[in-house]
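OP here, attaching both records as promised.
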Amino acid sequence: MGLRNGIFTVPKQNLSFTIIAATATRRIVTSFENIHSFHPMNTTAPPALPPGCRLVDTHCHLDMAEYQADLAEVIAAANRCGVTKIITIGIDLASSRRAVELAAEHEGVYAAVGIHPHDAGTADDEVFRQLRELGAAPKVVGFGEIGLDYAKNYSAQEAQLPVFIRQLELAKELRLPLIIHDRDAHEDCLRLLREKGPFPCGGVMHCFTGDSELAEQVLELGFYLSIPGIVTFPKAESLREVVRGLPLDRLLLETDGPFLAPVPFRGRCCRPEHILHTAAAVAALHGVSLAEIADQTSRNAEKLFALPA
């Protein structure tokens, strides 16, 4: 997917750059990205959503220290920008418990619970007992962030595998969609998802930065792909190429805040409202409006996580 024959206008500050699509569409897109470092809105002000539109940040860590000085304002600022729902993610028992508490305390905030592969070594029977209880709490809409991480190996691979398997089984028992972390572990991650599936409540590959082959395999599982702010980074052309070809009805958006802030906030704390910059980038890649991307990805999130529309 990319530019179609016709006119494609991209705003930049108060100017408009109009590109006439021709047979050399790919060259035009590449030229645009090289010149403008691929930030459709070259300003720190978030792109404005049209009235009636909303966005869902499907993956944020609201419990983390970067947000605690002004958490209520972080959530309020997101709401003012049209980010009406945020899923705050557990990575260990303490953050999972805090996610459940935050969901109870704030309208529009929902929770996911799980043990990140970095913490697989801590996941004993008591942890699983408490996870089962937390997973049944009100406003818990997903199980994760779980998976495999062979890049850091903070937990040994032989510890990660059984914990991942056990969490896949628990998620199925609790009837919660999966939120999968896969870093340099594609073969094992996909193999276990196939072996332990199907998963009636589905799932999402969080913070997707893989190639088209991996994307196809994830889609074949019936899962969604969640696009982070990395898609705005100047050197992320390979990810942009993949995103261009993905079906819109299988895309989610996320911040992974406080990490991975999109351009023009790269290197700073990523806040939920920054997802508008990611949405604008995806819209530009597909040659559609920000409103269309917001509507489609929000409906996708509401469907996967059983969120109120």
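Record two, same layout:
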Amino acid sequence: MRNYLNGILRLTRYREYIWFVMVTTSLGVIAAYGPVDWRLVVVVLANELAVGFAFMINDVEDAADDALDPGKRQRNPVSAGLLTRRTAYAASAVVAALSTALFALLGRGPFLVGAASLVIAFLYSWRPIRLKAIPFIDLVSHALMLAGLQFIASYVTFSETFGPRFYWPLAMVLAISVYGELYNELRDLEGDERAGVTHTASRLGAGTARRLAAVCALCGVLAAFIVLFFVQLVPPWVIGLSAFVAIVLLARPIWLLKRQGGLSRRPAFVAAQAPLHKPVEIAAALALSVRLVGPWLNTVAHAMSTALLQSPLGVLITSSPWTQQLQRVWQLQTEQLLRLF
């Protein structure tokens, strides 16, 4: 039973996307001026499950190909023999059903966007169609199902007005996601060629694909610059907090990379970035989460302090001059803190 549950958990591959989905979802909520309420929790869970389904169905459909690659054979629980294909399909269907139900709770708009995400995720890997094996269509479908549609679903959960706060963050996450797909294709290029898989990187060749990935990364950085300094989607302290956390988390991977001399069997373009993606995702997710819940936590703290001050004990305490002064200072600090968000 333990091996069975472990196999299902491995099938989700949650470590590969949990933080990035937090980033795309948080950006959508912040862009729509979404409050912290039950819809935030539901849309986060719905998006995480939708992306989880994409990873799960991908491993089910790719099990035969992964069995040919020593590096993937043990990572994929189906090709490793931990799960049967039928069981893996059933687990994937349950995750898709849960995601669909959660999107439905959020209303018509989020439901339609979420359903589109799940359909694209299925067609991306399903062998009779397999969008991932169609050059250039693979980039579009990947960008939508693993980034763009998550952002859109979270945005339309809270707003039906579209403007720069919608278009520029969407352009940013799409560009980054296309870069991520090219990175994955370059990483898996040798194994995919042995398995006969065709995609954009194999069609263009490694050199051209690397240049295209660099262009997409540059477009993502440019869009991020506009989002941060022109659209001003988040205050400066969020950028600072994200940078600080990223520096802390990147210190060890960079040190190890330098110590190893960047040696790898894979091309340097891919090898140099492999340990750096996740710390940046974690830093952005944490900073954006603080931006989301900060005002809510401050409101809760203010309400609790007000209730305490209005209680008999609070009235007794606040009757003295020094506590009245302390109360005025607290109110001033609260107002200043709220302006930061």
